[in-house]
């Protein structure tokens, strides 16, 4: 177990409810519901907040086990992918946290039931390892395979506030139209590779699935007091030719950027994709790309600073991009 926050925690949480994750089964949730495990925000605690089952915890908590065994919860990843690390967060669980935990994973097509999942052969990602109470417990994962489900086992019982599964999404090419897709979408395998400032929130929010429900689900920088501007760069799902760009400032009203531009590159120098363009607050902007050309990385510059809810880049994969897209899937299929 690591004690300092590792670099891989900056990668997306593949299990988060925000990206479509779901806790499909738990053998016990007598004190607190399993669904709390994958809530996007940090756990909260209200002293002397009692219900019919005792103190109400913002997490998953099982009853005291009186017989041998372990308690388990299965999470269907909202974004199937390669797991680089997991966080077992026991926030506010002090005298009732599990002393040990382990994590396993499986890759399966379709939408199996909990009973069908139980019959599969699960692969260990984290062996039985000690946990600290009221703490984030970090465990690096070395597997390079693509997984669709993970199973958290706590030994023997107790409470876990949050369960984070960080990694790189890997899309199934059988479920994607290479001629028309969002080249910058996290769920298609795009990833943030550079950012000038992430003071308020993660730039990965920009390319997350769905629309932002609140301002905190976008990317927002600190107020810039000097010269220059803020920016974020995204490695696309594959090399492609974009036709339409969406720059969405929804929920950003007094803190939207004044202007934005897009640049791209394939192998060498940056070139203009969308010239510096004025933006409006709390608005979903859609712009046709003036001169579509192949690129594998896009850079969004905002002037001078502020917040953006989403970045979308609609277009088609080129032959090169399609080859890389499919190879990423096959190489991680195990």
Automatic annotation (TrEMBL):
The record's InterPro entries line, in alphabetical order, gives: Allantoicase (IPR005164), Allantoicase_dom (IPR015908), Galactose-bd-like_sf (IPR008979)
Which EC number(s) are documented for this chain?
3.5.3.4
Catalytic reaction list: allantoate + H2O = (S)-ureidoglycolate + urea
Pathway terms, separated by semicolons = Nitrogen metabolism; (S)-allantoin degradation; (S)-ureidoglycolate from allantoate (aminidohydrolase route): step 1/1
Residues annotated as domain Allantoicase: 20-169, 189-316
Q: Origin, by domain of life?
A: Bacteria
Alphabetized, the UniProt keywords read: Hydrolase, Purine metabolism
Q: Which GO terms describe its molecular function?
A: allantoicase activity
Q: Which NCBIfam families match?
A: allantoicase
Regarding protein family, the annotation reads: Belongs to the allantoicase family.
Q: Which HAMAP family match?
A: Allantoicase (MF_00813)
Tell me the protein's name.
Probable allantoicase
Organism listed in the record: Amycolatopsis methanolica 239
What gene, per UniProt, encodes this protein?
alc
